[in-house]
Please model this.
Amino acid sequence: MLPVISHWLTQFVIGSSLLLFIAFALLKINRYLLQQLTTQKSLVNRINRALPQTQCGQCGHPGCLPYARSISLGEASNKCPPGGQETILELAELLNEPVRGLDPAHGQFRDFSVAVIREDECIGCTKCIQACPVDAILGGPKLMHTVIASECTGCDLCVEPCPVDCIDMINQLAPSISQTTTPYFDRLSSPGVSS
Amino acid sequence: MSALRQLASRFFSSDTVFARRTVGGIQPLPFKEDSLRSRIMSTPIPQQLTIPIGAADGPEITLLVDIGEQVSKYKKLAVINISAEGVSDVPVHAPTSGVITSIENSIVADHSQQQQLCINLAADGHDEALQLEPQSNYSLLSRTDIVFLIRDAGVIGMGGAGFPTADKLSKCAESAIEFLIINAAECEPYITADETLLRERANKVVLGAQILKRASAARRCIIAIEDTKPDAIDALNQALQNETGLDQGCELVVIPSKYPSGSERQLIQCVTGIEIATGHHPTENGIVMHNVGTAYAAYEAIVEGKPCISRFTTLCGQALKTPKNFEVLIGTTADFLFELCGIETSNKQKSIVGGSLMGSEFGSDKAAICKTTNCIIAASANEFQAPQAEQACIRCGFCADVCPSKLLPQQLLAFSKTADTTQLLGHGLLDCIECGACDYVCPSQLPLVSTYKESKKRIENRRQDLELSDYWQQRFQFHQYRVKKEKDQAVSRKAVVPAKPTLAAEPAVKEQNDEADFISKEQASLDIAAAVARVKARRDEKNK
Model:
């Protein structure tokens, strides 16, 4: 009786351990594949998040996400003027590349500015409305247009199509914001460290 | 720590509050004797008052007066709507009677160092006041009534942060409050405004503390004061003995003198032993803290019915002959106070608002006193050393020893230089209270706190940029969706042939409009031709 039981037992143990092993291996493979997929996707996402999302197309792509995809496939990351030096640094760090200056073929750094329509000169042609990537311009055919300043990304795309050149880019950054305060420290007495 | 506290509570009765040892801190020379020599003085009414009503790009401001209007003392001039829901309205009252001359940007003696919108009031000297409504039966007032009256009086935190007191009180309704702590520590060198206030008007401060206690429904009210202020402690003890209190007595806790024990989180830890976690509010732990000056303002608002039109400000510094404390009207300019103290203009090198460790310089002596200006120093040339050339960090670790937030200042400096945001946040940059203790002890004269401030600003700007870019991305995606949808609809519209309009009433209408239509079309084409010609001319000019 005993050998029979032991035989059953060995069979059971070997069988179950095999099953466990296969399950474990499957899980590992599954996880590996998933990881491969998500890292690829998250790299595009992370690049996209580093880009300023002005959708200006100065990099030669129709929007920031296509450029992010293209960067993840190996395109140079220094083609984004609105992002400024910070975006270039961040992307270089993210992609583990040496930091390069901005590619001058794609424009120059500029302070953040917002499009403003000179309303008395607007003829209501709706061309800027069609050009705006974020629907920040209001107006109708043969009616005056205006830019919603809080929605404008400063992408410049509406300036070119305007037949009467009535759109200006107005600088929005007040210089006082970047100024920092300098505190004055009391250094008359010798430093007293209390513990 | 909790085990120790359990042990302690076995020996003492569990209700005993005692000062605990806190981390870090320094003991700088106080420089307080000069301004402590005289009593609090009220100022004469200045001819011109510049009353700050908030930053121009800050919260929304509702003006209640016009330029050229004659106003009486205590009249509401403006309401600052700090939050959009309209719950955080802080009214600003006229400190004296007079005529509003203008409303413009000018410098205010506070830490923001930015110009604020100010109401200029030319005083007429009559000081005609509106009738006040003192609440003689203040002990019968309900909690909401007290909060309403304090809000209406425009009381904000007098310690320096300037958070609306009524908001703090109504926030207390959300959680059960165990401790109300009245902060009388005043640990920074030079500042003596709270100390003199307690020395002379301790009764009123205690009454104010009781009002705040009732309004926040706190179980216990603790007044925490440093042991270097014996006169103030005596006065407080006297006041607490004579107390004819509303509900229950306030308690006095004397804490060891150490900078920065007057900081909110440090004082809470010193008195209650509770450490408030980053990003959490003390009310979540059942603690609320108010400044002594705020307690006095609450007393004035309720018992005397008087709105917040003055505050206690220390004037000191070697350039002044008689440094002293003033009960100064909000909107008085700094040079007026300097004159009162007998200023030696040749000796004065710079003016500093706040104490010597956390204070910042303000450029113009025309700067106005606002509700949070606790001290003004007219410093002589040899009083403060100019920032010296910075040397290399020698890793002495003094800064880490004295940091009250248990941070590693030298590491933070290194990460700030490389702009490493993840490391900075990981090392707790946002916990830095900018007390300046690390600067004080640094033997290499490194500009630590100013660097941290810059880093904080940079991180905040980056966060805002990210928020904005997320929004733009959403808008762009919606734009793409909209364009695609319209295209699809255009295709399907072509497929369906539109039905011919019925020939009933339309022609008649059309005949009527024909002429007008034609004229307007002609006009439009002329307009467009003119505009195109204009542009051509301009382009030609540019090309030339």
User: Anything to note?
Assistant: Chain B touches chain A through 61 residues (CB under 8 Å).
